[in-house]
Amino acid sequence: MGLWARLTRIFRASTGAALDKMENPELVLQQTIRDMRDRVPELNNSVAQVMATERLLAKQKENLSTQVVDLDSKIKASVKMGRDDIATAYIGQLQQAQIDLERTNMQHENAQLASKQALKARDNYVLNMKKRTAEAMQLISAAKQAKLQEQLAQTMETFNIGDDASTFNEMREKIDRRVAAAEAKLQLGTTSVDNQMHDIEREAMDIQLQDKLLEYKQSMGMLGAGSNNAGKQISSGSGAPNEEKAVE
Q1: In this structure, are 65 and 95 located in the same domain?
Q2: 3-class SS of residue 173
Q3: pLDDT of residue 5
Q4: All residues at 6 or more sequence positions from 64 whose CB lies less than 8 Å from its CB, including other chains
Q5: pLDDT over 50 (residue 237)
Q6: What is the CATH number of the domain that holds 126?
Q7: Domain range holding 176?
Q8: What confidence tier does 64 reach under pLDDT thresholds 50, 70, 90?
Q9: Would you say 101 and 61 are in contact if contact means Cβ atoms under 8 Å apart?
């Protein structure tokens, strides 16, 4: 093998490898789908032109048929009137109209066939486009999944469990120390003298409120004398035995 052939082979191999690396299957498939969809309006325009030709020929055929009938009537009228010269002129026009009508009929039949074929080709293309689009979407999904798996594999290759484990342990230890310190402060706060005094004040307030409630009920006649004395005994507590004897 000559030197030039070897260089050519190396260049082609290197270029092909570079293109394979640069070529993104997902982007290529998406562009292919766009190209196929962009062709649909062009196909619709072509089909519309064919159908327009068919309808134009149909209109021409209708006009020629009317013209043939009209010329035939004029020929008959001219003959009745004895105007052979005029009848002869109309006969010439009639023959030309019949020739045109025959040619238009053939063209219209061909146009009808062309319209059917164009519509069928358009429909086949649309069906094939939908099929290819579905296949492309599946391939794009598979490509995305493969890319995700590749990234996950690369992450797992560079993942060092020892370093992260030590970090987790260190952070756990710091959090545990903060939680312990907070619990200790909370315990000290709940056992302080100030908190005990607050508890006594709340108890005294509750006693005053109960006494006030009993006074209201007594003033409203909702309690008897015994109930009032009992309420006072409850509100005064067990520390006043002399008052209880006096009530008795």
Answers
A1: yes
A2: helix
A3: 66
A4: 97, 100, 101, 104
A5: no
A6: 1.10.287
A7: 160-191
A8: very high
A9: yes
Cβ proximity of 133 and 33 under 8 Å: yes
Question: One-letter amino acid identity for 90?
Answer: Y
Domains of the chain: total: 3
Give the three-class secondary structure for 237.
coil
Same domain (yes/no): 10, 119: yes
pLDDT exceeds cutoff 70 at 196 = no
Both 115 and 67 in one domain: the answer is yes
Residues 56 and 142 reside in one and the same domain: yes
pLDDT at 69: 94
Q: Rounded mean pLDDT of the chain?
A: 77
Say if residue 110 is in the same domain as residue 147.
yes
Could you tell me if 40 and 126 are in contact, meaning their C-beta atoms sit under 8 angstroms apart? yes
Judged on CB neighbours under 10 Å (0-12, 13-18, 19+), 93 is middle
In terms of DSSP H, where are the helices of the chain? 3-22, 25-80, 84-158, 161-190, 193-219, 225-236, 241-247
If you average pLDDT over residues 25-53, what whole number do you get? 85
Asked if 139 contacts 29 with a C-beta cutoff of 8 angstroms, the reply is yes
| Residues 117 and 205 grouped into a single domain | no
pTM: 0.46
